Amino acid sequence: MEEINRTLFLWINATPNSPEWLLSLATFIARDLIAIVPLLIVMLWLWGPREQVASQRTLVLKTGMALIYALSISWCISQLLPHPRPFVIGLGHQFLSHAADDSYPSDHGTTIFTFALAFICWHRLWSGVILLLTGIAIAWSRVYLGVHWPLDMLGGFLVGMLGCLASNLAWQLYGSRMLALTHQIYRALFALPIRKGWVRG
Predict the structure, then answer these.
(1) CA 200, CA 51: separation in Å to the nearest integer?
(2) Which residues cross the membrane (predicted)?
(3) What is the mean pLDDT of the chain?
């Protein structure tokens, strides 16, 4: 597997001869496109058709729980199975500044793939597919720029699956109570914007 990982990395990784526009595009995707996750969470919680707000907030909370579980699993795996990044061992070319911490599984990959899988499972297939394609783009860009291995991204996808499974199981135990509590806290903190009609109550 390690040999396959290295071969795939060198096949995807950019070189000093790679087009400048492609490096710039990959940098934007690798560094900034992940912002779609918090933006969608905020938008789905605060706004939307009145008849859909309840289901949107259920989606947001289940997805948030899945992210917490997935990132916790990811952290545990990185502690148990530390793996250096490509540039740490001097393989390939690095075009994105990054700390020399453990690479497996990718936090970016875990986050976006958990989000995509959550939308596939609990929202609509088309929205999940769009997020999945976004995740693939992020995965490609971070390998292309030399800060991750291809299997780091596959690991993020698999951990995302585990996070969604854990969230779904946990939701059956305490999801409704957590949703009610979250609503109470939200309405207390956002009482003025709700009264003004800026956000949904």
Answers:
(1) 11
(2) 21-47, 59-81, 112-139, 151-171
(3) 95
Instruction: Please state, in angstroms and rounded to a whole number, the distance separating the CA atoms of residues 76 and 107.
Output: 12
Cα 179 to Cα 182: distance, rounded to the nearest angstrom? 5
Residues 54 and 57: their CA atoms lie apart, in Å, by: 5
**Distance from C-alpha of 33 to C-alpha of 131, rounded to nearest angstrom:** 11
Q: Alpha-carbon dihedral of residues 84, 85, 89, 94, nearest 10 degrees?
A: -170
Helix (H) or strand (E) holding 78: helix 53-80
Asked if residue 50 has pLDDT above 90, the reply is no
CA distances from 65 to 71, 77, 128 (A): 10, 18, 17
Report the candidate in 96, 103, 130 with the shortest Cα–Cα distance to residue 23.
Answer: 96
The DSSP code sequence of 55-76 is HHHHHHHHHHHHHHHHHHHHHH
Interval 20-46 mean pLDDT: 95
CATH topology of domain 2-196: Vanadium-containing Chloroperoxidase; domain 1 (1.20.144)
Indicate if the pLDDT at residue 1 is higher than 90: no
Q: Could you tell me how far CA 25 lies from the centroid of its own chain?
A: 19
pTM above 0.85, yes or no: yes
